[in-house]
Amino acid sequence: xxxxxxxxxxxxxxxxxxxxxxxxxxxxxxxxxxxxxxxxxxxxxxxxxxxxxxxxxxxxxxxxxxxxxxxxxxxxxxxxxxxxxxxxxxxxxxxxxxxxxxxxxxxxxxxxxxxxxxxxxxxxxxxxxxxxxxxxxxxxxxxxxxxxxxxxxxxxxxxxxxxxxxxxxxxxxxxxxxxxxxxxxxxxxxxxxxxxxxxx
Length: 200
Prior knowledge:
Layout: H1 14-60, H2 69-90, H3 106-139, H4 159-187
């Protein structure tokens, strides 16, 4: 008889799978589309890392620094962070204060889910309006011509203008996503909280 302690196999994580399925169901087709394109923005972070490595080698090994590396990596990362908020909402993983939510029953949780989604939609709408005010100044000249705001450096890329337009688009999509979630929460049957379910 061996004295070696027997370790039980690692438990499965059904809660994680349920959470993923529930997020997909609640966020609808729009959420699925957002999730599919998220890989592009994830690759962007790898691209920004590769750009910085190139800049280090060019500067310190060959003595030939670039004009574009730092501004480009900052822009790529900023785009990724902006999209990250939309991705979290689509996956229903945004930060919540769950003090009341955890002790609520199924019907109250459903009501809270709907209210949270609607409040987030309204807040996204206000932020989208503020973003539009920035876009007006960053994209249009006083005469009405289109001229994207630039960095003002030697490279002088139109990154600020592009980023502000992207922010506006993301906030509009975010507003629609929260509306979709509110609608889907309203049509769903109340779900029994995990703490209230019986286990055998």
